[in-house]
Amino acid sequence: MKSLTSQAPQVPKANDDDGNNNSNNYHRQNKHRGAHTAASYIRLNTMSEPKVIIVTGGSKGIGLAVVQDLLKAKHNVVLVARMPFGVSELVKDYPGQIKFLSADMTVPDTAHRAVELALLSYSKLDGVVVNHGVLAPITRLAEASIEDWKNHYDVNVFSALSIIKEAIPHLRATKGKIIFVSSGAAIKAYAAWGAYGSSKAAFNSICRHVAMEEPDITAVAVSPGRVDTDMQKELREKGQGVMSDNDYAGFVSAFEEGQLNKPEWPAQVIAKLSLDAKSDLSGKYVAWNGPEVAEYREQQ
Length: 300
Prior knowledge:
By secondary structure, this protein is α/β, with parallel strands linked by helices.
């Protein structure tokens, strides 16, 4: 494995979506990439005391890949998710390094329980990766249900704000990190994505406010690009007829042509930022393959 380098794909333009033009280039460059390895990552991150990171929505997709990276690098993780999926295997493979909280982030006491579990298990908190979220409702504004939007914001915004609020006092003590898993939809509109795009725009704004209000905490919002996850499957199944034809066709073709990012690609950046994000990144929205985070990205 080559060492980290400052060279990286060009940062996406402001009007690019989660499938920015550089995604295809990165995919071609990594066509023959083997299984993700954390060898260099471990060398970089085990020189000091293990850190303690909460990862929400950590049982599948990007969240699971973030958890796996952190565990491979010998750090401790509190994984919060509604369903356990492969958690038992992680507990078996990394005894003592992982605590699992099976809970819905919208339940009022979940944020407190997650932070409390981190403190009781590991005596501190170094970072939070806010990864949980939903795409639905996929409807145009004229047909929108206000109740559906409220439910969406409960998941994507208010429950995220809840765990951030709960974590801040403890992150001040460790000069910790908050990493928001954002989206290109935060800066580009798609028909029928009003709820999702606006909630991710709220993420970016909350990130900037954390940076403004908490100088001892580094907060970064990261766009992971178009990633091969359940959310992409959902939009392929439900987006036809409500999204614009061109946008919908673009997402479908990206899947059919194998151009979606693997979860491990953005996850490596998100995991490393949760450990070591530099303060000059605080408040910024960055693409996972952008030049601002080149040093956090493994190059093959």
